[in-house]
Every structure is written in structure tokens, then in C-alpha cells.
Amino acid sequence: MRPHRPFIEARRQTAARRRLPCALSSILLVVCAGPKVLAQQTDPASAPEPAIPGPPYQARNIEDNLEIGEIENDSVKPGPVGRRVYLFKPPTDATIQLDVVSKAIDSVVAVYEEGAAEPFARDDNGGEVANARLILRPRAAPTALVVVVTDKEQVGGRFELRAAKVAATTVPDTLRLTVGSPATPGALTESSLRRGGIPFAQFAFEATKGQRIQIDVTSEAFDNAVELWRSGRLIGSDNDSGEGTNSRLIRHAGETGEYTLRVISPLGSLGSFEVGLASVALPNPAGPPVRLTALSTIVDSELTLKSPVRSDKSYATYVLKVPKDRRLVASLEGFEPIGKGRHPKVTLEVGHLGPLGFLTARTVESANETLPDGTLQKRPAVLSLQTVSEGDLAFRVTGDMDFIGKYRLVLEAPSAATAAAASEPLASPQ
Q: Of 102, 121, 132, 272, which sees the most CB atoms within 10 A?
């Protein structure tokens, strides 16, 4: 007997309902498994990297953080733009070692300060084989750094990045010096302290109130500068007042206690140096000015450690009796004692001596100008003036903050025809 048709339809619907979960399960399995299979087939080195602009780098654009004691397993893409960028906040009381370990890439690690166009530390093969390694000394300020890993060969591949403490200190890189002791050697390296990306070395010494200290920094490796600090306040700095591109700073100690000096490489160059501290002679008190007798004259003299000082600057004063309605041209230039072509800055003031001292009417400074071909050309301090009455005219020669050396003061009284043809404006001291 044939089954009733409704019964047959009911069985078909039941069978369909039984097959539906299986079909749905198969579909869900494919949908869920698909991405997993694709992920397993993707080359990590070819995975897209975050679009982080730089250098310079900005912390707000960096999502990956490098933590001390952790290992970052990552990769760089092939090509010139392949890189991984991390934000790193080193402690202020420990030395940090960064290691990039890889069998796939010739790693390069560079460390930037936020906003800097150039790294202040970089290494290619400081680790084992082709691995990179950097040592970061303690830093005075707990600012975040940007760590960038690249492949020198631009092949791309996986690597491990590690940051670990290797030493702890309480005072970062501060060595103690003694005034009058022999010059102390030092060096600026990749792991030196940094300020604004500029490497420096820090020293401390004791001085007595009223003591006059001369600080000399010498180096054949880099153009150096020196800073003097007291209780967190900058009280003096110099660049190139010594021989060649060396620094010399001469200061009076305003109080007894500890002072801090920093040896700096303004151009970021690294290398060895020596720093010396000496207690030098106190200056003579200001005496009467030197009187000149001729309107046209040349004075060749020098500023020494015994020259009188105002605001830590050595100076000399001259007086010349001038007639009424006469044009005068005064020029001044300084010379480095060993004559290497660099000309220290000197200042020429013209005015009058009165009961209250030197009353300045005009001031001009000498300068060094760099020509388009890179050569250095001096520009003397030059003043042109017209006298309005007969009497004494005073000239004061002042060296730059730490200039001790020779200078030349030239006074000229042009003829009436020359003065009338002069195109520059004339001035009258008051």
C-alpha cells in the first residue's frame, strides 16, 4: 500500500531539518577556518607595518612600547623603508643595553629623541656576528626615546629586540676634578649623556669664593664647548676661546662650594679630550687710562690675566684729545695668540670718562664671517664718528668673555676731502 502523501512530505521535511545543522556547521567551519588558514600562510616579513612618519618621530604616533626585561619578537619588511619603531622610557638611574638578535637580517638599531631628525646613538654590528647592540648611559631627564630597528641589507626578516639593565648608578657620569691637578682625559662615545641629541661629559669640582678658575678643554677629535653650572644655574659657557677649536672659560667663583662643568660636542662628533682646571692670577684693579697723543695712530697691545675685568671680561681704556668738527674712524680686531686664522670677538666702545665712570656713546663688535667657499673672513669692529666739540674722547677695548690675547686698535683722521666724500652716516658721541 502506498504511503499517504502528507506522511511522505513530513519525512522529507524532517530529513531536511536533520541535514541543515550539518550543512550550517560545514559552512561555519569554512568561514571560521578560512582566516586561520590564511594567517598561517602569510609571511611575517611581508605583513603590513604601521605607517609611522619620521624621522623626526612623534610619540603620539607610536603604538609599540619597549619594556625592560621583555623580548620583542618582530620583523621588518624588505626594502629601504622597512623598519620597526618603538617607544622606550629608560630609567634615570641605570645603564641600559639594547640588543637586536637575528639570523635573517643584518640589524641596525638607532635611538632618537622625540622630534629629532638624527639619532643620538646608532649601532650596526656591536653585538655578536651581524647583530646590533647599544649601551645607553643614565640620562638626566626621564624623557621617552624612540628606538628604530632596520635591516642594513634591506632583505627583511624576523628579529628579537631586548632591553636590559646592565649597571646601576646614583649620579650619572659625574667625575670629580681638582683645581690645579694635571689635565684629566675623557671621551665622548655613543653611550654618553645627551641633551637635545648633543653628547656631553659631566664633571664636578670644588672652588673657593673669590678664586679665579681657568677651564681648558682640548681635543683633536672634535670642536668642543664647555659649560659651567652652579646649583642648577648656568653661569658661564665658551666655544673656541682656546687654541684652534678648543674651549677656554675663565670665571670668578662667586661662592664656596661645588661647581659642575660639562664638555660638549656642539656638532655631535665623538672622540677623546682632556679637561684641565687651574687657579689663575686675579686681575689688577682699574687704573688710569692710557693717553694717546696723535689723531692717527696704531695701538698694538694685549689683554692678559692681569688686565682689569668687568663682568668677567678683560678690558683696556684709552683717551685721546680731539678737536671740534673732526671726523675719526676707529677700528679694532683681536688675534689668537698662536695665529691659526680664527679671530676672537672683541668690542670697541667710544664715549667719555666722567665721575660715574665710562659713559658709552657708541658700541660695535668684531665678527667672523664664513664665505660661500667655506673660508673664514674676519670683520673688524669699525666706528666712524664726527666730533662736535673739543675735548677728551675715550675708547674702551673689551675682550670676549674668555679672550686673553693680542689686539690692534687703529685710529684715523681722514682729510677734509675724504671726510666729505664718505658715504656712511656720521655720529656724534654725547
A: 132
